[in-house]
Amino acid sequence: MGNKTKGLLALLGIGALAYYKYKKSTPEEQQAVKDKLNTAKDNFNKWGSDLKSKANDVASQVQSKANDVASQVQNKAEDVKNQAQETV
């Protein structure tokens, strides 16, 4: 048996044991497990939202910086054009 197969079987065994223990536990213990899972899910969703928000912030900062640079280049081009016209 390969390592992946052994690992998968071990994971299935752990899952089956956890399910068995869950089914044999009291309703209070089952609710505690559900609460932990819901908390973990909420934390994961919050983490995903935070990550998305940070990515959007970075993207808007990059866009803003690009717009600033483009504006500066355009202003410089106008200055050069005006100087060229004055020289002629």
Kindly describe this structure.
There is one protein chain. The chain is mostly helical. 94% of the residues lie in helices and 0% in strands. The protein is built from two helices and no strands. It is elongated, with a radius of gyration of 30 Å. The model has no long low-confidence stretch (mean pLDDT 91).
Main features:
single chain, 88 residues, mainly alpha, 2 helices
Helix content: over 70%
Global Rg: 30 Å
Unreliable sequence segments: none
Number of strands: 0
H/E topology pattern: HH
Helical run tally: 2
- Helix and strand composition category: mainly alpha
Distance between the termini: 85 Å
Approximately how much beta-strand content do the residues carry? under 5%
What is the general shape? Answer: elongated
Q: How would you state the average pLDDT, rounded?
A: 91
> Biggest sheet, in brief?
none
Q: Can you give me a brief rundown of this structure?
A:
The protein is an all-alpha fold. The protein has 2 helices and no strands. The protein has helices at residues 3-24, 27-87.
